[in-house]
């Protein structure tokens, strides 16, 4: 009659076995290799690296494989691995002026020094299912021929926002040559109010969908300030990662990473201290991630309201609201913890609810009786009145 | 804000030297620097009873909301000689308790137990054991939302000020509104309590039935909220008062039924639906307490219907 909830251990083991089976799918189909994921699902790999806060395409691909393609689960796997890694040293800030560009566009100017370069993009594709991809093809068919990708040399490319800067039309940045180690919310708790460095770190790690929606909300009018956002520049490419080992005292390049960087500006009407100008929003992610970069820059711009003395009226301007709910590993954990047993609390609520219902019935009955009585009395009085 | 580059080679070497239980990982999963950081937060929490100390919570190999705060505390204080008990909803055999216990058995190589009396560290979600705790126990609570004022004021910047000024009127108003609307305080778990006349805490979602056990407990009680990055504590023998009013004193849940298995009348009971007609029975939520009472010969009305553990395992798997 009473089924004991025993055997949790064996149940867990069996569940994990079932998961392994599901991951493998039909054994008649060749197993997906980590290398294939890394090479052929680069957008998934990049998202997992960005939100997982670890630049390692192979491990990100492994996480995607292990998570059966559930990217948030993959991000979680990578984060849980990352947190165990010892920190040897902090790198120098990456210098995106020296980026080896594979894509660069500006929506603000028709042309600019360095030119526009579309590179690999979904933009301007017609979203028609390409049924030819149903068939496995030999590589030559697709990838042969020059797609205008390689640039001869790699001269530094001016930042377009700097042209605005020269005219004083965009707010001045803090001194970029001054080097200060930024805050790190994987080593310090998030405390409000937060500075821009920690906010940007939070936004990079934030869920792409959440940041996209928050950015979108600011564009649809749920942000009272900051006019139309302009993508002044979006650049994708490889940058060097450099360290300065203490015992050597000079810069050593330890590798290259691919990043997407974006400068978004919108009109700021100025204050007593600052003239009207464009105010900046900034976005940067690992790999290719334009959607995230643009929306991140929008949210960064909106969240600068405190610093710029703008009215705070919309969800996207609310630092606590945005930054406390942006992390999908935290969010998914807490939302999904509702699957855990809660029967002790539920029992408490049942007990309270039953008692409240009993009392409610008594109260309603009593009120009904009183109302009947009053009605009776009123009726009696009414008759008396008529007589008078 | 501290901005150290973590470059403590000594700690690093000791981490590497300590790979014993699970190759590739330090004793009890966390690296020694992180443990030290957590222990510093714990010390501060003990020194300021009930104060929520921010700490830099790490991603654990379990999801946020599934006990990561408690796990980080346990990982930071557990030593080789400790004996660990993990309960969820009062029971040792619920899946998440099994999973966390297994994690520490593997990653820290410690002895585990289901007996309250044998344990030195008890990590818990939603219950305090029925047995009296002693000075030998350290309770580690898994806390989902450490801020008792959260439902009154959602903003951290505001609640911090309210705590600093002991501005707890809003909390009393909330309880008063319950009474005005429902004729009673309708909070049945996570019932706010005042620690040593200072800070109001969330006792974590334990039923209010367990609140009196917080008061003057000989055990050290540590509360960890991983996702919310807070640690707080009730040191041994500290006064803990559940909020109430003179004319509406604090009261705990009572049941008309007794435990169907061991016949206990003073323990917290869970309700179990027996069949499609909705017949039900009640059983102790503290599985160790119930088991020992059964072994001692106590019998409840359903004692003879109990199926064996082996059979239960078969059903579960």
TrEMBL record, chain A:
GO biological process: organic phosphonate metabolic process
Protein's UniProt name: Alpha-D-ribose 1-methylphosphonate 5-triphosphate synthase subunit PhnI
Species for this entry: Desulfocicer vacuolatum DSM 3385
UniProtKB/TrEMBL annotation, chain B:
InterPro entries listed in its UniProt record: PhnJ
Pfam families (UniProt xref): PhnJ (PF06007)
Lyase found in the keyword field: yes
Annotated region (Disordered), positions in chain: 297-317
Keywords, ordered alphabetically: Lyase
GO molecular function annotation: 4 iron, 4 sulfur cluster binding; lyase activity
GO biological process, one term: organic phosphonate catabolic process
Domain of life the protein comes from: Bacteria
Name this polypeptide is given: Alpha-D-ribose 1-methylphosphonate 5-phosphate C-P lyase
